[in-house]
Amino acid sequence: MYKSVIIGVGGGRAHGHADAYQYVKRGRVVAVCDLRPKAMDDFADKYDVKARYTDYREMFEKEKPDLAQVSAPPNLRLEVLEAAESAGVPAVLVEKPLAIQGEDYLALRNFAARKPKVKIAINHQLQFHPCRQRLQKLVEDGAIGNIRFIEASSGMNLAYQGTHSLQAIGAFNPAAPSAVFGQVSGVKGLQPNRQEHYAPDQSLAAVEYDNGVQASLRCGENAPRVPRGGAIWQHKRIAVYGMSGYVHWTMWGWETFIDGAYESGEHEYPEEDVLGQAAMCEAMFDWLEDDSKIHPLNLERALVDFNVILALYASALNHKVIELPYQPEADLVPKLRQALAD
Questions:
Q1: What pLDDT sits at residue 13?
Q2: Distance between CA 155 and CA 231 in Å, rounded?
Q3: Domain 2-126+274-298 falls in which CATH fold?
């Protein structure tokens, strides 16, 4: 049985991690860590976790976990990954977004270039939702023919949900992105906030891929709303169009049109999500047991997706198409903040 620990348990995402372990067959949560003792005790009591720490380094040393699940803010990502590698933790699942701006992206890219011993994946659990899995398999098997166009959107901004949308595009079309042309607006999401998530309020981008597929990405207030969607975070969706039809997924439903036959249905997001979280963990254990079973949400792929976001920012600032991969200029986020405030 693999030993898992959770870092940062004050928010809702950590509860999603812990709830999933009722369906995880090969792992169990043995310890939690948070700087706030009251939040940590409430969480640990709820899930009957005895070992509790306010220092994750101490937790790594004493518990020797196989998997660390990290829900700490983005500015702590690299620090935790380096500590995990130093302590010999073999695997880490990191909450999205991987980074916020060019500087932390470059630091993480340099870390990945060293080929660290720790195996890292990003918590884009939607990849493993049963409904998304079914639609992804249809596209992979050629049911809609050659892909021509993809549109993906999310109700929250690029920092909160943009990488979910980009990862969804990559799940259906695993080709490499080659160019970005984008626009952004709204400065509210670029102001200081506790979560350390900074992004323009809304964004729109055209993304080209090296297999000829074109994609549209919309995140924020300008994104379409989906049926049954309530809170703003519930408005994620992706539609994939091919020569023989299309598939369309939202957080509450799905539809397909293949060779003239239309089908649709609904699903319950909470039920899908807990199963997706569990399957994501099991895929990490698969990777631990077999190096060839690379997790689809691995760090290298996440860096490619975040490079698209940085290029989108550069395109908006410089009013031109940005070729990929993009070497980010310094202070992209402060430059956006200034440009949008003027």
A1: 82
A2: 9
A3: Rossmann fold (3.40.50)
